[in-house]
Amino acid sequence: MCASEHQRGFGSPEAIVGAALAFVALLAALAAAQGLTRLGAVAAARSAGALGAGWALDRLAREAARAGHGVCPGGEPSCPDEAVEFLGAAAIALRGDLDGDDPAASAWPEPWLRGDGRARTGNDEVVVYLLRPPGRADGPLLFDADLDGPDRVTLPDGTLLARRDGAVASVDAGPASAGGETRGGTLYRVTFVHDARHAGSGRFRVAEPLLDDVTRFAVRAWDAAGAPVAACGGADDAAARACRAAVRRVEVRLEVRDEAGRTAGAVREVALALAPDAGR
């Protein structure tokens, strides 16, 4: 049977235009889906960065909240220990009885640290938070503290422990960024071992990486009246000690960068545990 002149097949102009419009609509739908996927990936990356920053700062805040707790429990004026051992614009070192709620942990090795058995803060309870750049650091972070001494005692597990003698020495927490800004550094938590055989060497410290791709780490501090406390380092002189002893509250700020170069961050503010006269 022959088709009439009014019947049209697939090759008619209307069908071709319809197919083209459908194809364009399909491309638009695919582009929209890809855009949503990219937006989802960006949101996920920023969310992951913010979560990582929040986790790292939560850990710092928990330890800062115990800074000063158990420091110089006898109250002797000669005790050199401080709640804040180092205060910088991009780093902070804290001392406190972090394991005081754990009877087993708090009994090792604190009873051996002083002859009277009254020490409550071990070397592993002096914690430093600092930022290390991906390349050359600005230099080592140094502070004065009593973590070593000539009087040694061997613990039951064979560790050679240095008893506290009240004399401070320079402690090296490792390389750090002085300005607190990098192209993508790593936030570290640094603490120290009790084995006196490693004192003065890189093995004396334990550096735990907490977060990568950090672009900014900042520390601010205030005194009891709410006045800002300037960064005063970790020297063992009267002015620096008075400066650090004034600290009652700290704020830490952290920013990270995702693969697309976008930043996410977190901020924590915490009051220290130290009593008003616990600077020494």
Summary keywords:
eight-stranded antiparallel beta sheet, two-stranded antiparallel sheet, single chain, 280 residues, disordered C terminus, disordered N terminus
Globally, the shape reads elongated
Q: What percentage of amino acids are in beta strands?
A: 25-35%
Number of distinct beta strands: 12
The portion of residues assigned to helices is: 10-25%
How many alpha or pi helices? 3
The succession of helices and strands, N to C, reads: HEEHEEEEEEEEHEE
Q: What is the radius of gyration computed over CA atoms, rounded to a whole number of angstroms?
A: 29 Å
| Unreliable residue runs | 1-10, 35-47, 275-280
Largest sheet, in brief, is: 8 strands, antiparallel
Task: Indicate the topology.
Elements: H1 13-64, E1 84-87, E2 91-95, H2 110-113, E3 126-132, E4 139-145, E5 152-154, E6 160-162, E7 169-176, E8 181-192, E9 205-222, E10 228-229, H3 238-245, E11 249-257, E12 263-271
Antiparallel strand pairs: 1-2, 2-3, 3-8, 4-7, 5-6, 8-9, 9-10, 9-11, 11-12
Account of the 3D structure:
The protein is an alpha+beta fold and about 280 residues long. It has one domain (about 40-270). About 25% of the residues lie in helices and about 30% in strands. It contains 3 helices and 12 strands. Strands 1, 2, 3, 8, 9, 10, 11 and 12 form an 8-stranded antiparallel β-sheet that branches. β1 (about 85) and β2 form a beta hairpin. It is elongated. The N and C termini lie far apart (about 110 Å).
